[in-house]
Amino acid sequence: MPEADTEGARYQADVAQAAPGFFLKGSHQLDWGMTNRLARVFSPQSGRTVMLAVDHGYFQGPTTGLERIDLSIVPLLPYCDALFCTRGILRSVIPAWAQRPMVLSASGGPSILKELSDEQIAMDMEDAVRLNAAGVGIQVFIGGEYETRSIHNMTKLIDAGLRVGMPVMGVTAVGTNMVRDARYFRLACRIIAELGAQYVKTYYVEDGFETVTSSCPVPIVMAGGKKLPELEALTMAHNAVQQGAAGVDMGRNIFQSDAPKAMIQAVHAVVHQNMLPKQALDLFETLKRQG
Q1: What 8-state DSSP symbol labels residue 216?
Q2: Which candidate, 246, 249, 241, places its Cα nearest to that of 276?
Q3: Does residue 2 register a pLDDT over 70?
Q4: Which of 156, 201, 227, 261 is the catalytic position?
Q5: Rounded CA gap, 197 and 27, in Å?
Q6: 0.85 exceeded by the pTM?
Q7: How far apart are CA 55 and CA 63, in angstroms?
């Protein structure tokens, strides 16, 4: 039996133990495992993230730019803070040596040929743990035909996540006929947060986006949406983080760019370094020329 060490004497009873708050708003009372996973997705230095969204195929098939994820997306992994993908893509394409955290899409059901809000939970939380995920995301169709079902999908996923320390990102899914304004997104984001999601993914609106972020008690990441010219996309990302977003979850504005590797680095500079859009565009053009 090994000899016991002598009892320690450096108790420093006059120094209270620090109880530091967590750097993400609304997250300071979460369990250690959950905050550790959040700290993998969001940078503790900037408090922000550049997520790369490539989950489009689960409802619309081989999207432009995602025909060969092994060729178009895997080379971008070193430049993102987290990858938002499906478990099928993770297992079949993403190398196990990839060190970036993975956030897994847990939605599923209809394709673009049907009513998109008619979704179900499409992944067991146990599998997310098995895959060492840093979080899961699920679509919530506030105002959609199957609104109540999508909310219940999310709350069931949140309950499962709380049992294992897995953060859930609620995604404000907007139908083609729905108004995209600050009033709608304030409603949708607040409902998602009130029902327990640890962070929210939503779209940017030019008028009143700061009211969306300020009225949501958990972090918001901006969805990239449709493909825009590079300067417009960089400006949108800049405005979003300056107005309270904790980063972006961009897809088409990166992988459909003429120079995806240059674009994701420019977005990274905007989000984490507060680079101005025109400076970021210059960075994009420089990196594009370098190949």
Answers
A1: -
A2: 241
A3: no
A4: 201
A5: 11
A6: yes
A7: 10
